[in-house]
């Protein structure tokens, strides 16, 4: 695999270290909180992939997270066994994203209007799901339940054995494995020509078009893939929370994931993951007290990041690290440092 | 017959509601292409100001028509100086920063007023239309909106400040070459937009109870009204408010209020897909 500056490459040492930490973490702490942090990390990864590499900013990525959660809950209530619902939780958001994406990208809509439309899709789902109380809104055996949501569905089970449900520690390991696998899939996509073209589109759309690439098709494809990933995160979240409410579509949820990604770092994969874990943990801590509201902190973080460190924390740290490395090694080591800085500094501006 | 009257009044009210809540956003978008996602929170602040004044014994009309715009206008001034002015020309970054501001304001108001609903009684009582009971305050809102739109049009059309503002919309560099600092124009415009949002919040406060998160109820509607309207401030806001408001209320009466709102949002998406520069970007081009 050749290394391309703007795409980055997997550092297997770090990857194995992360795997080891995730494996051993249950020895030192309860897995309930880490599980949801990993799920949020997966959600952030799906937006970070799309926004940081393809330059597509969806203001309403929560729509696909929520669709995944609802698809899983509705399907598992009707089917009882979790394998097909798990697949549906990826296919349903992907299908919706394909339609919305094709409508936007083949219509050559600019990034600002893309933000507006994605946000509106989320709002429509939020309004609709909040209004589905009562007997009229039933899919098969599943009552959508309006604002109170859908409780009491089966959690994930071992494929083929509906009586062995996963709960607690196994769920944690499933989430950890899914996150690691999705990370590898993202890396794999970025290493292929498909990923290169996406980065090319982010850098200069007109040039890619003139080189003969079908830009709307590429954008729709990555939008669909990332929606499927967000749907998977939503499915896992439904399993963790054991209830699905319309709140998964709320403006707050949509803003949160965006803040995790931009604070963690655009144009990296690890940035959104770390951002989600750190800020998600802060959110849980703030939830334990009532003096300071979570949105106060999130809002302040977003303003500070946009004004002060628009590339996000991880790329900023990377360039500091690279500069230190350059100083330490003198002129001979500058190639490596410069390449990393380049990779981190590709942030689409409008 | 009475029913037709009720439907007509409700449609007029919805149009007025959309035009009123989006006027502040429209003026800022039309002038500087800045989409202020904290707009809903400016409206919410106007409402809270009105209620706080009313609870301290100040006349409610004075509070909503004067105190609320002035207070929120000052907040807007502070926001422009501390955040927005660093981000002109970076549209996405502005949207992100103002979204952060929106969350920050929600958090602050929760901190101060608590996360409970507050309200103020409507100062105008209802009246009877045939067999239907109508809210008299809705008529007041329609009147305020008409007066506001006429005042905005007159201010843009006949005053010196309006002339400079229209000039800055069409070509900031030309205005600069004539000796007016566009940054100053932007600053005052943003503050004026915030003041209009405060006015909207104050006027609407008696109709809707207020929560710190109430801004979310306004932002989506204001947002689609402005974006589908396009860059021209008054004709754009008015034309999209008429289209979206009419569809919303007709579908609401035919089916269900939630379906009406969803129909409005879907219509906005379709309109954006067909006319990405908004209605005025396609059909009107004169700037006001």
Give a verbal description of the structure.
The complex is a heterodimer of chains A (350) and B (288). Chain A has 14 helices and 4 strands. Chain A has 350 residues and is an all-alpha fold. Chain A has a two-stranded antiparallel sheet. In chain A, strand 1 (138-139) and strand 2 (142-143) form a beta hairpin. Chain A is globular and about 65 Å long. Chain B contains 12 helices and 2 strands, in the order H-H-H-H-E-E-H-H-H-H-H-H-H-H. A two-stranded antiparallel ribbon of chain B has the order 1-2. In chain B, helix 3 (60-82) packs antiparallel against helix 8 (182-204). Chain B is mainly alpha-helical. In chain B, a hairpin with a 2-residue loop joins strand 1 (127-129) and strand 2. The interface between A and B is large, with 47 and 40 residues.
Largest sheet of chain B, in brief, is: 2 strands, antiparallel
The CA-CA distance between the termini of chain A, in Å, is 32 Å
In one word, what is the shape of chain A? globular
Biggest interface goes to:
A-B, 47 and 40 residues
DSSP strand content of chain B: under 5%
Largest sheet of chain A: 2 strands, antiparallel
**Whole-number average pLDDT of chain B?**
84
Please count the beta strands of chain A (DSSP E, at least 2 residues each): 4
Q: Beta fraction of the residues of chain A? A: under 5%
Tell me the series of helices and strands of chain B, N- to C-terminal.
HHHHEEHHHHHHHH
Helix percent of chain A reads 55-70%
Rounded to an integer in angstroms, the radius of gyration calculated over CA atoms of chain B is 19 Å
Q: For the largest beta sheet of chain B, what order do the strands appear in spatially?
A: 1-2
The stretches of 5 or more residues of chain B where confidence is low (pLDDT under 50) are none
Class of secondary structure makeup of chain A? mainly alpha
Characterize the overall form of chain B.
globular
Helix share of residues of chain B?
over 70%
State the strand order across the main sheet of chain A: 1-2
Radius of gyration of chain A: 20 Å
- Element order of chain A: H for helix, E for strand: HHHHHEEEHHHHEHHHHH
Main structural class of chain B: mainly alpha
